[in-house]
Design goal:
Helices cover about 40% and strands about 20% of the residues. It is α/β, with parallel strands linked by helices. The strands form four sheets. The protein has a seven-stranded mixed β-sheet.
Length: about 575
């Protein structure tokens, strides 16, 4: 039979953990060989972890990466492995190693270097100079890396023109809401346009502010999905590429596309041959290849799983076991606590209620109720004595001035101090609980509710917070009390305070934030969409003047197309007002 067994291994690498990454890669190589695979592919920079950022400038890191690559060679006696690594010192390239027969058979260099959003690859890498193909079992395989496949012309055009019967892409494509659908549509289009099977293996796991969703994909030459990796978890699966079927498809295609490609993409390719046949039929016959198409996550399921994955990996990969957070009885801290329990287990979450004179019995009770339902360690530390001491100490300085936001911020900073004290004393990571809507307009307190080591909801708009709470409750049992979701939100730092005293309704606020921050819409465009001009101007002014706060916020999980930080880089000192 004229077939190839292709294994895709979506693994959760950790930046700089060469021993751990090598162990995972060897384990999957051996497992793929046991399934009769001819070829197993791993994600972009699977060996180093992605993204290594300025570690790329460290020659010791590059050398350690090379030594780690050599440790993989003995595992490839009976299988070919494609592994992402860094190639070269000085002029470093984002590369894929093709390892076969216990040796490095060839290297592919990434040609299209992304330099937008969270990507800074112009800073770190030199671009590959020509498309790469390799020959395995008499079949030509086009190999490219992540961004390379997103372009409709090169390198895929030249690879197919050179005779490629399969396009293999290794990726570390970060998650954001809607990204998985866009990736699927793009790959299906490439397969149809070039009449060639396309396979993409994607990284999975959390790395600082990024989450990689897995969802590795294989499409046939018609653009039909034939295999998929799991969402938000490691996976290894095998699929068969039927070259006889591909040949029949191409012979029956009367459009002349393949000949047209040869004419349009005459460029040279980097080509190397692995020689030898594919895996012997005896070894293959021991294992039947099952169709691997797990149901993908989507909507709130996918977003919730991304937050759980990102939080769990950030905590564990940085050497922590437990987390601590302020549990106010409000919706943001409630969702953060539930996410923490789902990511780390109830035994590793500590919630602290810190009531003041303005804390309502409703929120105070809900904090305890939620903690009880979750089964977490729950502490109550009233801040009233500390607050009174602050007011007494500052009374001479504040004499003749009415209470204002200063007194509100003092309460938030007392709470932040308590959470950080517990973090320091017991070695727990402190989680802050603010959301993107509040962070956008500065409705948060530096060194208060912004204090912490990780901000789970940093890129989650308030309207999505409500959606995720309802979604989590729908999964079985009402974990978050209904009163938490139904109560009008309040910081409870002043008498009868409501968020609506200071902010537009959250549906309007989030619309403005999305249009301005994520899509760079002008005031004219926003007003034309139906928003009120005065409200738009007020919100934009709040967003711009609070950049200094966001610069001092802890890292948090990227969920939208433009998260604050690496995605959106805005000057603090800025006199321009739209």
């Amino acid at each position: 039979m004229n077939r190839m067994r292709l294994a895709l291994a979506q693994i959760n690498s950790t930046v700089g953990d060469f021993d751990g990454n090598v162990g995972k890669i060897i384990d999957r190589i051996e497992a793929a060989a046991g399934l009769g695979a001819d070829l197993v592919a791993f994600p972009e920079l699977a060996l180093t972890g992605y993204p290594p950022e300025d570690l790329t400038f460290n020659p010791d890191f590059i050398r350690a990466n090379g030594e780690a690559l050599e440790r993989l060679f003995p595992a490839t006696r009976d299988i070919v492995a494609v592994v992402g690594f860094l190639d070269g010192i000085g002029q470093v390239r984002n590369a894929a190693a093709v390892i076969a027969g216990g040796r490095l058979a060839g290297v592919c260099h990434k040609m299209r270097l992304p330099n937008y959003g969270v990507f800074d690859e112009f800073r770190y890498y030199s671009a590959g100079e020509r498309p790469t193909v390799f020959v395995l079992g008499g079949k030509i395989i086009g190999l490219n890396i992540c961004e390379d496949i997103w372009y409709p012309d090169e390198p895929i055009g030249t690879q197919v023109a050179a005779g490629a019967s399969l396009i293999l892409n290794i990726s570390s494509s970060p998650y954001r809401v809607g990204r998985t659908v866009a990736r699927e549509e793009m790959l299906a289009l490439r397969a149809r346009d070039y009449l060639v099977p396309v396979a993409l293996v994607n990284m999975v796991g959390g790395q600082d502010e990024l989450v990689f969703d897995g969802n590795s994909l294989v499409y046939n030459e018609y653009g039909d999905l034939v295999a998929r990796g799991s969402s938000m978890e490691e996976d290894l699966f095998v699929t068969e590429i039927d070259f006889d079927e591909l040949q029949r498809s191409r012979e029956s295609d009367g459009s002349g596309r393949l000949m047209d490609m040869v004419d349009r993409h005459p460029g040279p390719v980097h080509c190397f041959s692995l020689g030898g046949p594919l895996a012997d039929e005896d070894r293959r016959s021991r294992v039947t290849v099952e169709r691997h198409l797990p149901e993908p996550l989507a909507g709130p399921d996918e977003a919730y799983a991304a937050l759980v994955l990102g939080l769990g990996d950030y905590v564990r990969k940085n050497g922590f076991e437990k987390v601590v957070l302020g549990l106010s009885g409000g919706i943001d801290s409630s969702l953060t606590a539930v996410l923490a329990v789902d990511a780390l287990g109830a035994e590793n979450v500590v919630g602290v209620s810190m009531p003041s004179r303005y804390t309502s019995e409703g929120t105070r009770g809900d904090a305890g109720e939620l903690a009880g339902r979750l089964g977490i360690d729950f502490r109550e530390i009233p801040i009233e004595p500390i607050y009174e001491s602050y007011l007494k100490t500052l009374a001479p300085e504040f004499e003749g001035r009415e209470p204002d936001v200063t007194e509100e911020n003092i309460q938030a900073r007392i709470r932040g101090n308590i959470v950080m004290a517990l973090s320091n004393k017991f070695g727990w990571m402190a989680l802050s609980t603010g959301n993107k809507s509040e962070g956008s307009v500065g409705y948060c307190t530096l060194y208060g509710d912004m204090a912490g080591g990780f901000s789970v909801l940093k890129d989650v708009p308030k309207t999505m917070v409500y959606e995720l709470c309802r979604h989590r409750n729908s999964l079985g049992g009402e974990v978050i009390p209904a009163s938490v979701i139904e109560r009008e939100p309040s910081a409870e730092l002043a008498p009868d305070q409501k968020d609506s005293d200071s902010l537009p309704p959250y549906d309007i606020l989030d619309d403005i934030i999305e249009q301005y921050v994520e899509h760079d819409r002008s005031i004219h465009e926003m007003v034309a969409s139906g928003l009120e001009e005065e409200t738009v101007r007020r919100v934009l002014a709040m967003i711009d003047r609070n950049e200094y706060k966001r610069r001092q916020a802890p890292p948090g999980i990227k969920m939208t197309s433009r998260a604050f930080g690496k995605d959106r880089r805005f000057p603090i000192t800025n006199r321009f007002r739209p």
